[in-house]
Amino acid sequence: MPRPRAGPGPPPEDMYDLSMDTMEAQSLCMQRKCLGKSSPLSKYIEAEHQQAGLFSLSSLEAITDVTVDLQKKRRKKCGACVPCLRKVNCGTCANCLNRKIGKQICKERKCEKLKKRQSEGDASEQHLKSRGMGCIPRRRTECGWSAGKLE
DNA sequence: TAGAACGTTATT
DNA sequence: AATAACGTTCTA
């Protein structure tokens, strides 16, 4: 059952027109567009944050380093594990059946390496924690943030 | 926390 | 340009 989502509507162009409806605009921003890590827009936002002095300059270098690491190109399948060696889609798993919308590879073919999250086994988060940056909010609910408490 | 949805990026 | 599929966010 497809959930009623926001849909592929036009992007909120007045995202930064906070005079309109600050809460709403920020909320939209928080929910998706701005805090994603992969889009050029998010990189721009990141730069904005830095310029706004949200991060101390001393930790900036280290963070930039980590950020670059996290924003590296997307990983590729190892090509050697059992799933990778599989050549045909099963055609019956959720991913196969939901191909058009889900945009995921057949579950039977999902590389073992890619099944793990990118940050797993990576010291990036620890790296940040050691610098007092234990939590980088990517979502409204992270870092003790709550809806309606964005000032 | 797993799975779904969707933006984005890599490949063809 | 079309397609495949990774990465992130959101919902149940």
UniProtKB/TrEMBL annotation:
Q: Where is the CXXC-type domain?
A: 71-112
The protein's name: CXXC-type domain-containing protein
Q: Please report the organism this UniProt entry assigns to the protein.
A: Xenoophorus captivus
PANTHER family recorded:
CXXC-TYPE DOMAIN-CONTAINING PROTEIN (PTHR13419:SF0), ZINC FINGER-CONTAINING (PTHR13419)
Keyword Zinc-finger present in the record's keywords: the answer is yes
User: Any transmembrane segments, and where?
Assistant: none
Q: Which domain of life is it from?
A: Eukaryota
Q: Name one Pfam family in it.
A: zf-CXXC
Instruction: List locations, semicolon-separated.
Output: Cytoplasm
Mind listing the UniProt keywords for this protein, alphabetically?
Answer: Cytoplasm, DNA-binding, Metal-binding, Zinc, Zinc-finger
Q: Does the keyword Metal-binding apply?
A: yes
Q: Which InterPro entries match?
A: CXXC4/CXXC5 (IPR040388), Znf_CXXC (IPR002857)
